[in-house]
């Protein structure tokens, strides 16, 4: 395996970009959507099925894998790639999001975060140094800095203090990461919805120097309009020749809007979580398969889709297995959703490369506005 990690921009159309991230475990075509494999699995999917949807890279979760089965155990068993049977690139988040989402179970200090496990109440300490160690033990290809992210809305003072702490932790993360040829470390921009704080964060990250940069602290309650407002300027604050990753986003129209504004990578639990709750994402918007209107419908979810759920099964069948709580319902709907998300990314990559992204985006919104097909 080559020891190189690199990013090549191949084309741009407005602020939208397409390119490729090269890693020892393969290429990641950008813009890229990363399915979320929180605990070493994309729920209801085999790794080869995830790959068949077109995914080049998965996301794993430092906090959850630290608690169960434990990073040291995963390392003894050959690392996360071998453990979960995924030989393509893996990005691991740092555990920072859990600092926010599990606020009732933690104590935050300059050193790091003391957690009580949500599983058994056991006590753990997560610091920038420990986060880097866990991600090294997991063997992830792209490592995220340890950061702290306040839920929005929050006071500007609280956001400023949080951003400053994250920047100090970013420096410690870089020092703890060390030299790891073939592996990349990404810094995370914070600053809420305040332009000046975002700018200050970006400057501090560039001063430290990273292999890629994330826009963090969005999709945490601020709403799409506010998120797009930040994305109108935040990506351009980051180095043009490095990948830009928007964390935790999102719905299809969020993703299209983010790519339009210069984002290269995204992740979200939404397509897999929706699949388990009977929600399918299609070109025409969202379909709730549990609704009775599908009970006698022999048509596929989406006649233009080539995923197994659409190629071989009817809406009536999908409605039946969801209502019957059969496991195949989660499998088929998750596969469909992940397939659709990857088709979305492929469509944007082609449109950017060919210089007609604006026309592609207009058609995307127009088709969604038509809504689902009429009931029989």
Description:
The chain has 15 helices and 16 strands. Helices cover 41% and strands 19% of the residues. The termini are far apart. Helix 7 packs parallel to helix 8 (195-208), helix 13 packs across helix 14 (327-354) and helix 14 (327-354) packs antiparallel against helix 15 (357-370). It is globular, with a radius of gyration of 20 Å. The chain has two domains: 57-268, TIM Barrel; 275-370, no CATH class. Strand 2 and strand 3 form a beta hairpin. The chain is an alpha/beta fold. The strands form four sheets. An eight-stranded parallel β-sheet has the order 4-14-13-12-11-10-6-5.
Question: Can you tell me the CATH topology of the largest domain?
Answer: TIM Barrel
The dominant shape is globular
In DSSP terms (H or I, runs of 4 or more residues), the helix count works out at 15
- SS class: alpha/beta
Distance between the termini: 54 Å
SS elements, strand count: 16
Estimate the strand proportion: 15-25%
Provide the low-confidence segments as ranges.
none
Q: How many structural domains does the protein architecture include? A: 2
Just name the CATH architecture of the largest domain. Alpha-Beta Barrel
Main pleated sheet: 8 strands, parallel
CATH class designation of the largest domain:
Alpha Beta
Gyration radius, in Å = 20 Å
How is the largest sheet built, in terms of strand order? 4-14-13-12-11-10-6-5
Summed over residues and divided by their number, the pLDDT gives a mean of: 95
The helix content is: 40-55%
CATH H level of the largest domain: which superfamily? Queuine tRNA-ribosyltransferase-like
